Amino acid sequence: MKVVFLLALVCLCGDSFAFVNDNKQQRVIIAANPTVAPYVISENDSGIQLEIVKAALNNQDINEVDVHYMSNQRADALLNQGHVDIALNYSGILIAGIYRSQSVVSYENVVVSLKKSNFTINSIYDLATKSVLAFQNAPAYLPKEFGHNLENLRGYEEVFNQQAQIHHLMAGWVDTIILDRRIFLHYLKEYQKTNTTKDFVIHAIFPPAARPAYFNNDLLRQQFDKGLANIIQSGEYRTIMLNLDKQYTQRDFTRF
Any stretches that span the bilayer, and where are they (predicted)? Predict the structure, then answer.
C-alpha cells in the first residue's frame, strides 16, 4: 500500500512540475489600453508599464508575448472569459478566478487647469461648478468621493483618446481635465510639436494609485510576482523607469 501511495504522489508531483514548465513556454496574451502613453506605446509594443511587465515575464523564461490593444472594459471582459492571459488595467469588480499581482507601477492622477482661470483646487470638492473632461471610466480608478460628487460639476465627460484632453483644455472648451501626470506630460510634449500651448497648473489632489497586472491563472500570477521582485532587486526595474520616463515625458527622476 505504501508503494502504491508513493507512486501516486510521484505522478501528481510530475504533473504539477510539467504544468509549470509548460506554463513557462506558453505564449502569453496581454490586453493593453493603447491610449495610456507613456505607460503603453502601441506603435512599438513598448512603454513604461508594458516594458516592466515583459521584463518580469522574461525573468521567468516567458518570452513569447503578444499584446492586443483594446479599451479597459473590453480587457475586463476578455480576461474574465479567458481569451487573454493578462490585463494591464482592470476596472471591474474583482471576481473569483481573477488574480491581482503586486504593483507594477503607480499612476498619479491629477487635475489640470489653465493658469489664467486662477482656480483654487485643493480637493475633489473644489471641482464643484467646473466642467471636467476625464479619462474613460475615471470613477472606477479615482477615490469614491469623486464619483459621488459628479452631479455637482458644471459638466462632466469622458474620452477614450486621452490626447484629446490636451486639445480641449488648451482650446478652452473645458475648465479642467483629469488624467495621470505622466500621460499629461507625454501628450503635452506631442501637442507642442504642432501647437502653441498656454500656461497651466497641475493640481495634485489624488493619492498615487498602485497599478497591478491582472491574471486569470494564479500560477502565472505567482511567476510574474517572482519575476517582478527579481527585477526590482537587480535594478532592472529602476533602469526601465528612469530611461523611459526621461524619453517619453522629459522628466529626469533619480529615485524609484
Answer: none
